[in-house]
Amino acid sequence: MANMIPISTTTVGSGGVSSIAFTGIPQTYTDLVIYLSTRASAASDSVGLRFNGDSGSNYAYRYILGNGATATAGTGTTTYTLGGRQPESTFTANTFGSASFYIPNYTSIYYKSVSSDGVSENNATTAMAQLTGSLWNNISPINSITIIPGSGNFVQYSSATLYGIRKY
Prior knowledge:
The chain has 168 residues and is an all-beta fold. Helices cover 0% and strands 54% of the residues.
């Protein structure tokens, strides 16, 4: 049995922000979980994570994306974990997407895996769901996480909550 403990929550204020950061993450949990409710200020619907300030091409990913009519899949490397979905600026006003990221063994001396899922919609004309597996090619324990949109900013009322998971 595991216990999920909230570590920190951030809600974006007026004007939006280019990223949401969790720093000084305690090294006392076994795993981490992040829940997002976000919307983009630009025409980009992706959301990703950077660990310990690493913006190099050290993140590999594999995803499957469905939009109700077709499914696509892909693999690659990038400068952040790929995974979340959010409504972009052209989508229905005041709609937010949701995403979750699960990071097991974040203090281990091995590469860090991340699984994520995310959904967004545009007033029933477009609905997207994405599942992604990512790998951060670094052996350092994770002590900070920066959440970034594919482009633009997170708009006001976007929120992120970081949880630690402990075994009983």
